[in-house]
Amino acid sequence: MKTEPSFRESVDIMFNRAVALMDLSPGLEQKIRVCNSTYTVRFGVRLRGKIETFTGYRSVHSEHMEPVKGGIRYATGVNQDEVEALAALMTYKCALVQTPFGGSKGGLCIDPREWNAHEMEQITRRFAYELIKRDLISPSQNVPAPDMGTGEREMAWITDQYRRMNTTDINASACVTGKPINAGGIQGRVEATGRGVQYALEEFFRYEEDKAKANLTGTLDGKRVIVQGLGNVGYHAAKFLSEEDGCKITAVIERDGAVVNPDGLAIEFLKEHIILTGGVKGFAGGEYVEDGAAVLEQECDILIPAAMEGVINLNNAKNIKTKLIVEAANGPVTAGADEILRKKGIVIIPDMYANAGGVTVSYFEWVKNLSHIRFGRMQRRQEESRHRLILEELERLSQDPAISWELSDGFKQKYLKGAGELELVRSGLDDTMRASYQAMREVWHNNPKVDDLRTAAYLVSIGRVAASYRSKGL
Ligand code: GLU
To answer: Which top CATH class is 188-376+419-454?
Structure first.
């Protein structure tokens, strides 16, 4: 095994690479890079007749904009280095997709599978209590969201805990995003990160020059895709790409191995199988391979690591045979691997852009909570009645015997339908993914010193963070 820098060092190396191409005032570079603060808490919860002690973190990387934003992760491997790396990525991610937030991240060292729902609630409420009383969860200061190991359920408990401690805060539900709909959530948040991966790829495929850099041609239709990790992000990305864009998911790698099918896996069935059995083994729609790591190295057009950081590293980078990597996870490619892959001509769509769909829709949810109104509530029916006016006029005209045309089947219904919350969320997300990609590719193609999308992404986002510091007089 070759030694690699830690996750945080890896993020710093990539940051430094980009910053070397910029002309920042002395000291500003360091101010942006460092993590402002990390709060560590050890708290006890009485469970199964004894006190269990848990360790949790909340890092605030940059407060150039507030609130700061970033998920809370539940996993046994959580540590300060990881949480700080993830918080830094949140800063750059939010700047890149222009959500008005600084970067933060939280984590709790826990294996959520070891505890039942009631116990998880007690633990989550206690952790939330510790963070709320220090303004590390607050609608105006720090707004967490789901991450690995957490979801709507945990967010609902956190909101409720915040409400109990801030009974008169009218904006209480904006203290966290990724909540269930009935607790102030927004349509399309659960699918958002996977949906964002799909929109990112669709945008990449709109540019011949960009595809050429990855030795790809044509459309997404028929492209062979390998997905690592069929959790929330990987599942939605694989589902949308296969069902809507015609991609063939030729392999899915999970904890217990991989399942391979050159004709494409049926993602919906595979997900059901994983939920039922806990793994991919025994899935009838593909061939089971125990050595998942080997499948990561199989030939394909697009590789989507959607699980953990550091899965493509100094040990396997040289064996990776894809043309394009889309970083659906945070930090799946180490700094060392990134260099090897770049030299091999593999194009990487970087994490801070590829998985930004989650925080983008979190932003919409936060705005919805602060405005106390569902998107589309005011205009939907008005939009429909204006559409109806046009349709009625068209129908009247088509009755004229001198004109021989009629509206095609289904057009009327489709045209009439005003946009509801889900349609608006998807449209806002698509717009964000397109605009952010365009900002990145502009640098990628026009700055002769930049030869990869990650450096381009850093240049765009660091430039924005720096501008924000400058306007504060720093
Ligand atoms: N945990 C997600 C991420 O890494 C979402 C963060 C958020 O919505 O605040 O981007």
So the answer is: alpha beta
